TrEMBL record, chain A:
Pfam families (UniProt xref): Sedlin_N
GO annotations of cellular component type: TRAPPI protein complex; TRAPPII protein complex; TRAPPIII protein complex
GO biological process: endoplasmic reticulum to Golgi vesicle-mediated transport; protein-containing complex assembly
Name this protein carries in UniProt: Trafficking protein particle complex subunit
Classification via InterPro entries: Longin-like_dom_sf, Sedlin
Automatic annotation (TrEMBL), chain B:
Residue ranges of domain Trs120/TRAPPC9 N-terminal in the record: 8-322
Keyword ATP-binding: no
An MF annotation (GO) of this entry: guanyl-nucleotide exchange factor activity
The organism of origin for this protein: Vanderwaltozyma polyspora (strain ATCC 22028 / DSM 70294 / BCRC 21397 / CBS 2163 / NBRC 10782 / NRRL Y-8283 / UCD 57-17)
GO biological process: early endosome to Golgi transport; intra-Golgi vesicle-mediated transport
Residue ranges of domain Trs120/TRAPPC9 fourth Ig-like in the record: 1137-1251
A single Gene Ontology CC term: trans-Golgi network
UniProt protein name: Trafficking protein particle complex II-specific subunit 120
Record keywords, A-Z: Golgi apparatus
Compartment annotation: Golgi apparatus
Upper classification of the organism: Eukaryota, Fungi, Dikarya, Ascomycota, Saccharomycotina
Length: 176, 1251
């Protein structure tokens, strides 16, 4: 189950991009990434979903609203967990032909967005808990990067340490 | 209608598709405008249409109704939707209008239309030109041929009414053919060709869950109706069971329901909405019973349309109870009275249709529309339709075609976005819905949209559960277009661009060329704008360049746009996008990609002049001076330095405040900083050149791309071309300069200067280049790139521009040294004291300019080594000496004898000069002669001065030197035997001549002369009128020469009053700190020395005879000591004193009395202070003063005695010599006892002899 993950800055600029492939070497299946056409499409999908994220970002009472509007929207757009308003995890925000897009917005407005692909023809399955944990740990890494005096916020993160740690996290939480 | 796609309107099924075709010779624009006019009158009131015979469709049945014509100009959909005509007959094109602008035969035209569009039921012709004469006027009245003056709208309205009438007649005929047909579903007709709605498995499951959840919700709410209908079904079956079997009954009900549904569709088209509502309602009831879900959905759709159209016409109506039961309705007033006596009067009779129908709704009262939240009702109906359609998916033939499914989704979406005004749809909203208009949601911020963004978005996402790519390209186009518009309305710009991208990808993938129109231009522009590509100007702006953006992503989008524009052949876009790609995304493109863009896009676009400007502003990176090949630089050794200056009249000099530095300005330093600031940006002058010079410059070009760039030409830009021209640039299209890929290329240009700029700078800040066939364009010199915005400069410019500037002066004469006599490499060697004449020959090499102005200056190494304040802290006499020497060096050491006033072009002139080494001190080694010359500028005194510098080296060999000088006073005459000695003879002669003269009036100057040269030298001395004999001095020998000098008399020359002269006037001498006496002493000393030096001459001749010279005593003779001064200058005194001896010749032991007597005539009696007289005794043979106590002369008393001026008095000293010898006695007078303050006096020493 490959994923395409990106951290998007204020002006829709990618600060970090990565593609995680499933079962890297563990079960000997080799890498299983997105097909080529999807690789091309991923950034576009992710970019398009920013609209939805920005819309959700400022809505505090979306769950209440969605119930009033009856069945429309339904369980499709999952908003933040109401039990914890300070939660940055948005859950599934968008989908496109079976690809699910999840998002996480930091307090400074950086958007962590991920396209979850599916390895087979079946729907991409998203385990909210582990994805949420993944985002939170990446957020922690990102804050550490921000503390680096040599890093200018908003510029692409080129640190290989950051990259390898994010990939480790991805293996840990996403592609078990 | 937009050719990009059709924006779905919710009421599309109520519109009559009308095809307009051009007949005759139409221009595209004219035809389009004519079609636009037709569109303006496409809404036709039934009231205006005259009655027809048909009961079903006669306009009088519902005069409120309207016929909406959907005017199209292409019939692409025709074949595709064929299988849908039974199910949704509104997809068929009913009317064809031939727009004729020639005089062709109407009947023939009609035939053609019928041939070409056999399926279309109503053919009409509108003639915009004159009808042919053969055509009868009567036919015009009744038939389907019309005459229309294009500027008359009312006439057109009438025509459209007639056309509508024709349509209604045709519709009646058409419907009659359906009356006895068993209606089949599209899946059953089309078979495998009909695209079945395919929900993606993933989404499908989701939808299913959604639906299940929905339906579970619905079932809870609808439980009553479900029960009712099931009851009804049961009761109905009970009733009918007697006559018909269950299956027959079911089939009959189904076909009846379908018939009613299709009748409803036709009634919608004919504008009879109330009838349509009834038909649909009946159909719904029937179809629901038989669970014919597909047709049921479609019927529900018809009902929703009826609701909207009736609301639009402001006709009050009741929501049929079937609907209220099927769909949960938000009642506005829950306690509203069900049957109101209001407008329902007009509708109620209609409800009871003439046909027998299963009046199932009688038990449930109809709801008045006023009490219903219409938008939510419509939405609920749509949801229900989708629900029923979803149920059909599992069936083999009774399934819903994907087109139909998509249409419902799109229709509902557009409806949802249009609902802005709350529960009661207002007329503006209805208008937008009916006419398919769309405007931004944000425009009406004050209104709370009925449906939230998220709701609409969620609904829209359902489209992506369908496999859209399997559908017909035109349908896809419409879907994506509508979707993009909706996202745009919601403010989801990124989503919009994403959908547009999907659209473009789809379009690119298709092989159908027919759908490509140039209307995609604005779409492409929209894409680039949405993706933030064209807003940025990173080439110029630092702000934009420093901002990071999603480059890879933008690149892909841009590449897609480029591909599309290539397909569309939109050259503007091709050029724009390919340049954007190549400039901003260079580093992301491979060599292959770049070369492809260059060869397939950029080069052809340049050729067809769609690209007119080179795309990279960082092309020219440097222009610098390489080498001065000015023709006035010579290699000859005589002129080491060649320079050019501007000499101007003085007022002109002063006119420039920066140059006015002759006046000391104490504030100059404080001003300095500001001056440097202002000069910082001024171009630095790289050189000064003359007209006609050729300047080599180096130009550096940058090519960041992965392909070679050819430069076809280089020119000087703008005004610069007037002053200079490039001479070695023979670039052309066939011989271009190649800037190889990803590199810097330097080229050398020769610039010939044509016109003088005088004082102004000739600045090259840009070059005009022609690149790969583009027109010449100016490129500024970009030295560096500004990485970040500096705080001082708020200019948002990434380029740090540079320039290159020189001065061009008019053509100038040019002097060369052709020949210099007696000189080997400009070096002279002289015996000191000699003179020599020499000359140099100059030539004006210029062929045009003459030398009008010549000035020769010289400067020696001594002058150069002097500090400017050398005269400070120097005593006046020393200063005089020094400056005298300097002046001599300047004036006499090298003297120009002859110098030409002007030199004509190509003329030779000689400069003669004399070198007098006697004025050269030994420290002098170099003299630099500067010849300044120039040509007067036209009619002015101004001249550009060029300098020709001739440096000379001198080596002086010592010849005659003065090693010492002594002066003694003469006291006794000489015996006659010694008269042969030249100086004795002279003195004695003088004494004889003038009896008043005494021997003591003369002194002897003894000069030690040394011959430092190797050869013997003959010397001749003169002093005033004295001429010595010739002395011969051998090489390396020293001899003492005696020169008699007449002593100076105090009474004649009052030296202490004469100040020491100053050679340079106007200097402010700071007080030297000398006392008055010291000054007067110095003056006396100075003048005595001057007396000797100025009068003493010594000419010498080498014994070999070929050289002669004279001795410059000034540089050898030191300052005189007081004794020498006394010897040559008779002392002065205020007092008339006299010293006398009693005897001049005494024996040992005898007494001798020296008397100093004072003549009191001139003395003021009041002065009572005594003077002291000091006696000094000197051994005159060796000229040594005797000590006060000695054993040679004894004296009585003391040597210092007071002398009172008040009374005439004598002072006497009694002496007794006790040793033989020649002695002198002298007296000095002092004011105190110690004899320190000596008063000058005229007393002369007296000598005596002791035997």
């Amino acid at each position: 189950m490959p994923q395409y993950f990106a951290i998007i800055g204020e002006k829709d600029n990618p600060v970090y991009e990565a593609e995680f492939t499933a079962q890297q070497g563990l079960s000997g299946q080799g890498q299983q990434g997105f097909p080529q056409d999807l690789k091309e499409l991923n950034p576009f999908m992710l970019h398009a979903s920013l609209d939805i994220i920005e819309d959700l970002q400022w809505q505090t009472n979306l769950p209440a609203h969605s119930t009033t509007s009856g069945t429309t929207g339904g369980g499709f757009l999952r908003s933040r967990n109401t039990s914890n308003l300070s939660n940055c995890y948005f859950g599934k925000v968008d989908h496109f032909y079976g690809l699910i897009i999840t998002a996480y917005v930091t307090y400074s407005g950086m958007k962590f967005v991920m396209v979850h692909g599916s390895s087979t023809a079946t729907t991409a399955q998203v385990d909210d808990n582990s994805v949420k944990l993944f985002y939170q740990e990446v957020h922690e890494l990102y804050i550490k990067t921000l503390m680096n005096p040599f890093y200018t916020p908003g510029t692409p993160i080129s640190s290989s340490a950051f990259d390898s740690r994010v990939r480790t996290l991805a293996r840990k939480y996403l592609n078990k | 209608m937009n050719s990009l796609g059709t924006y779905s309107s919710f009421v599309d099924p109520a519109k009559v598709h009308t095809l307009v075709v051009p007949i005759g010779k139409w221009e595209v624009q004219k035809f389009k405008s004519a079609v636009e006019l037709l569109k303006d009158v496409s809404e036709i009131r039934l009231l205006d249409i005259s009655a027809i015979e048909s009961l079903l469709f006669t306009p009088q049945g519902f005069p409120h109704g309207r016929i909406f014509l959907d005017i199209i100009t292409s019939a692409n959909n025709e074949a595709l939707d064929l299988f849908l005509y039974d199910f949704e007959p509104f997809r068929k094109i009913f009317i064809v209008i031939g727009l004729v602008n020639d005089e062709s035969d109407p009947s023939l035209n009609l035939e053609t239309l019928k041939e070409k569009f056999p399926a279309i039921t109503s053919q009409n012709l509108i003639y915009t030109s004159n009808l042919p004469e053969s055509f009868k006027a009567e036919e015009l009245e009744t038939g389907n041929v019309f005459r229309w003056n294009m500027d008359q709208v009312i006439q057109l309205e009438a025509i459209m009414c007639d056309i509508s009438r024709n349509f209604l007649l045709a519709l009646d005929r058409y419907y009659s053919s359906y009356k006895h047909v068993t209606l089949r579903s599209p899946g059953a007709i089309g078979g495998s060709t009909v695209l079945k709605t395919t929900l993606t498995t993933t989404a499908g499951s989701q939808v299913k869950t959604n639906i299940s959840s929905k339906s579970s919700n619905a079932s809870k709410r609808l439980s009553t109706f479900e029960k009712t209908t099931s009851n009804l079904k049961r009761s109905a079956s009970l009733q009918i069971a007697r006559s018909l079997s269950t299956s027959d009954n079911k089939a009959q009900q189904r076909s009846q329901g379908r018939q009613l549904k299709i009748l409803g569709n036709f009634q919608l088209l004919s504008g009879r909405y109330v009838d349509a509502l009834n038909s649909f309602t009946e159909a719904v009831v029937l179809l629901h019973i038989v669970r014919d879900n597909l047709w049921l959905g479609s019927a529900l759709d018809g009902i929703a349309i009826c609701f909207i159209l009736l609301s639009y016409l402001e006709v009050s109506f009741h929501v049929p109870s079937a609907i209220t039961e099927l769909c949960p309705i938000h009642k506005l007033h829950s306690d509203s009275i069900p049957s109101t006596p209001r407008n329902s009067v007009t509708v109620a009779p209609m409800l009871s249709s003439p046909r027998n129908s299963v009046n199932s709704s009688s038990s449930v009262p109809d709801l008045d529309i006023k009490n219903v939240n219409l938008p939510f009702l419509i939405k609920a109906i749509s949801d229900k339709i989708l629900h029923y359609y979803n149920l059909t998916l599992s069936q083999s033939s009774e399934y819903v075609p994907q087109t139909v499914y998509c249409d419902i989704l799109l229709k509902t979406l557009t409806f949802m976005t249009a609902c802005k005004s709350g529960p009661n749809l207002e007329s503006t909203d209805l208008k937008t819905i009916v006419h398919g208009l769309h405007s931004e949601l944000s425009e009406s911020n004050s209104e709370v949209p009925t449906f939230s963004k998220m709701e609409i978005y969620g609904f829209a996402s359902k489209l992506f559960e369908l496999q859209l790519k399997d559908m017909e390209i035109l349908v896809q186009r419409n879907i994506y277009y509508t979707l993009a518009e909706i996202y745009g309305l919601l403010g989801f710009t990124r989503k919009k661009s994403f959908v547009l991208r999907l659209l473009l990808v789809t379009l690119v993938a298709t092989a159908q060329n027919t759908i490509w129109t140039s209307d995609y231009h604005c779409l492409l522009e929209k894409m680039t704008r949405l993706y933030g590509i064209d807003r940025r100007m990173p080439e110029i702006s630092i702000d934009d360049a420093s901002k990071s953006s999603w480059l890879t992503f933008q690149k892909k989008a841009l590449q897609l746009c480029l591909t599309v524009s290539e397909r569309v052949r939109d050259y503007d876009c091709i050029s724009k996008f390919s340049l954007l790609l190549i400039t901003r995304y260079t580093h992301l493109l491979t060599r292959m990609e770049q070369e492809k863009i260059l060869n397939t896009n950029i080069l052809p676009m340049i050729e067809s002049s769609f690209i007119s400007k080179y795309w990279d502003p960082f092309l020219l990176r440097e222009v610098s001076l390489v080498r001065n090949v000015s023709n006035f630089v010579t290699n000859s050794s005589d002129s080491v330095n060649d320079n050019i200056l501007l000499k101007k009249n003085e007022f002109m000099l002063n006119s420039n405040p920066n140059d006015g530095q002759q006046v000391f300005n104490p504030f100059r330093h404080t001003r300095g900083s500001s001056v440097t600031d202002s000069t910082l940006n001024r171009p630095t002058l790289q050189g000064t050149f003359l007209v006609g010079d050729i300047v080599d410059i180096m130009c550096k070009f940058q090519n960041p791309f992965k392909f070679d760039i050819q430069v076809y030409g280089i020119k000087l830009s703008g005004n610069n071309a007037k002053y200079a021209t490039i001479i070695n640039c023979d670039l052309s299209e066939n011989n271009p300069m190649v800037l190889s890929a990803e590199s810097f290329t330097s080229t050398y240009l020769k610039i010939k200067l044509l016109k003088p700029t005088f004082e102004k700078h000739f600045t090259i800040s840009s070059l005009s280049l022609s690149i790969m066939g583009l027109k010449y364009d100016d490129f500024e010199i970009v030295l560096t790139e500004n990485k970040s915005k500096s705080t001082s400069m708020m200019i948002n410019d990434r380029r740090n521009l540079g320039d290159f500037s020189i001065k061009i002066l008019p053509e100038q004469p040019e002097l060369h040294v052709v020949k210099a006599s007696d000189m080997i490499e400009n070096k002279f060697m002289f015996l000191e004291g000699t003179k020599q004449k020499s000359s140099i020959v100059l030539k004006n090499k210029s062929l045009n300019s003459s030398v009008d102005y010549i000035s020769i200056k010289q400067i020696s190494n001594i002058e150069q080594s002097l500090k400017s304040d050398y005269w400070k802290n120097v005593l006046p006499d020393e200063l005089y000496d020094m400056e005298m020497q300097l002046e001599n060096i300047k004036e006499k050491a090298l003297k120009i004898i002859r110098c030409p006033k002007s030199i004509k072009p190509n003329e030779i002139a000689e400069v003669e000069f004399e070198i007098d080494t006697s004025y050269m001190p030994f420290e002098l080694t170099d003299i630099e002669v500067t010849i300044e010359y120039g040509q007067y500028l036209e009619n002015t005194e101004d001249v550009y001065v060029k300098q020709l510098k001739l440096p000379y080296n001198f080596t002086l060999k010592r010849s005659i030197e003065v090693t010492g000088i002594l002066i003694t006073q003469l006291k006794e005459t000489f015996p006659d035997s010694s008269l042969t000695v030249d100086w004795i003879g002279y003195i004695m002669g003088k004494l004889k001549e003038d009896k008043n003269k005494k021997i003591s009036d003369y002194a002897l100057v003894m000069i030690d002369m040394r011959n430092s040269w190797i050869d013997g030298i003959k010397l001749n001395f003169t002093f005033k009128d004295y001429c010595s004999q010739e002395y011969f001095l051998e090489g390396g020998h020293t001899t003492r020469i005696i020169v008699p000098v007449e002593r100076l008399d105090f009474n004649h020359r009052k030296f202490y009053q004469e100040p020491i002269p100053k050679i340079f006037k106007g200097r402010q001498f700071i007080q030297s700190g000398l006392s008055e006496e010291e000054i007067s002493d110095m003056r006396v000393n100075f003048w005595c020395r001057e007396y000797v030096i100025n009068n003493l001459n010594c000419l010498w001749n080498l014994s070999t005879g070929n050289l002669s010279g004279d001795v410059n005593f000034r540089q050898f003779v030191e300052k005189f000591d007081p004794k020498m001064v006394n010897s040559i200058y008779k002392g002065c005194s205020q007092f008339d004193l006299n010293l006398s001896l009693s005897e001049r010749e005494v024996n040992i032991g005898s007494n001798l009395i020296a008397t100093v007597s004072l003549n009191l005539q001139n003395i003021e009696k009041e002065d009572l202070t005594p003077l002291f007289v000091n006696f000094t005794m000197v051994d005159s043979r060796c000229n040594i003063p005797l000590p006060k106590v000695n054993n040679r002369i004894l004296y009585n008393g003391i040597l210092c005695q007071p002398l009172f001026l008040s009374t005439e008095e004598k002072v006497q000293l009694e002496m007794t010599p006790i040793e033989k010898g020649d002695y002198e006695i002298s007296v000095s007078i002092s004011e105190d006892l110690n004899g320190e303050t000596i008063i000058p006096n005229s007393l002369e020493s007296v000598s005596f002899k002791v035997n």
